[in-house]
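Lab notebook, design round three. We kept the backbone fixed and only want residue identities now. Task for the bench partner: fill in a sequence for the structure below.
Input structure tokens:
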């Protein structure tokens, strides 16, 4: 399989940006939380779920999306937000609880919203699927060719909201795509211990819609599968399910002791890192090493700028804690 090289370069830069962002967040999140781990301490409060390693799921499909398309994300949302084009400065400030954040510091890491690019993060398992179906219904009713994409984890495909929303989406032929990120664990429970089917794309047949399985965290395969699903949705042919076999290098949350994982698992996964594989693909197709380094440097510089902005921003004053909450 091959991809358009300009799209490929965007995908590479975005994947590097996501990886560097998450690795930088590991460091920022750890500040002030030791010697006894305390999720409320440090400059970044609350529980933190990072997605290093899962970049292909978000980047492969967002390469086909427009600003007008909707994306909903679960509690592990940074890669989706970055791939959709959420402002990195405002997002980082929100995670730090600063007044310059997307929600003026009120939502934090698990409740990111950016109406400018039609991105939302509900934070609750499977909750984003009904929201995406609602956005797809709105697009259909307005006669727009917009699509909605709901990202969920493989464990969320066992939730009622997933099935109820998909039933309506299939019945009304709504332009929605559910992307299931199979990272093998629902918190600490292996997929085979919680799910009756081998892969969740098989569940698509129950609703009479296409289901596709993307193996081995392959961003090029994800790009190809997503292209067909997005074209189908824009043409009014209804919803699709894509499940991608992906891998999180970090714990379910930062501070997770990961006792459920074999110690050799992550090193083995890193040997087939999706960024390295995309880099090799682009190199084989004529993109020079200097161009790739320029893209990576630009991505890292944007991330560094976002963290500086967040750290330099002010916390909201105490009297502003409920401002805008009851205005309606």
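Proposed sequence:
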């Amino acid at each position: 399989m091959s991809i358009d090289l300009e799209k490929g370069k965007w995908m590479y830069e975005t994947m590097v940006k996501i990886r560097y962002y998450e690795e930088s967040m590991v460091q920022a999140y750890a500040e002030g939380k030791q010697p006894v781990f305390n999720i409320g301490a440090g400059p970044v409060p609350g529980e933190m779920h990072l997605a290093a390693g899962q970049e292909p799921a978000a980047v492969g499909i967002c390469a086909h999306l427009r600003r007008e398309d909707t994306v909903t994300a679960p509690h592990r949302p940074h890669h989706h937000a970055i791939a959709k084009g959420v402002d990195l400065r405002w997002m980082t400030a929100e995670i730090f609880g600063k007044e310059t954040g997307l929600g003026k510091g009120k939502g934090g890491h698990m409740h990111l919203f950016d109406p400018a690019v039609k991105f939302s993060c509900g934070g609750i398992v499977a909750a984003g699927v009904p929201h995406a179906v609602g956005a797809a219904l709105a697009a259909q009713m307005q006669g727009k060719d917009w699509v909605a994409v709901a990202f969920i984890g493989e464990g969320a495909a066992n939730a009622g909201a997933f099935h109820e929303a998909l039933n309506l989406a299939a019945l009304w032929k709504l332009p929605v795509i559910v992307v299931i990120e199979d990272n093998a664990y629902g918190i600490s429970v292996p997929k085979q211990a919680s799910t009756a089917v081998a892969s969740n794309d098989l569940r698509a047949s129950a609703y009479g819609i296409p289901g596709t399985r993307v193996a081995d965290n392959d961003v090029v395969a994800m790009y190809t599968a997503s292209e067909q699903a997005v074209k189908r949705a824009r043409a009014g042919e209804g919803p699709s399910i894509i499940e991608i076999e992906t891998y999180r290098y970090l714990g379910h949350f930062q501070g997770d002791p990961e006792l459920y994982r074999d110690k050799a698992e992550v090193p083995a996964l890193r040997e087939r890192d999706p960024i390295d594989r995309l880099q090799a693909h682009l190199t084989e197709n004529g993109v020079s090493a200097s161009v790739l380094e320029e893209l990576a440097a630009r991505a890292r510089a944007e991330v560094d700028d976002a963290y500086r902005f967040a750290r330099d921003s002010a916390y909201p004053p105490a009297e502003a804690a409920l401002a805008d909450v009851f205005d309606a």
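Keep this in mind before ordering anything: Strands lie at 70-73, 113-114, 119-121, 148-153, 176-182, 185-186, 189-190, 211-214, 240-245.
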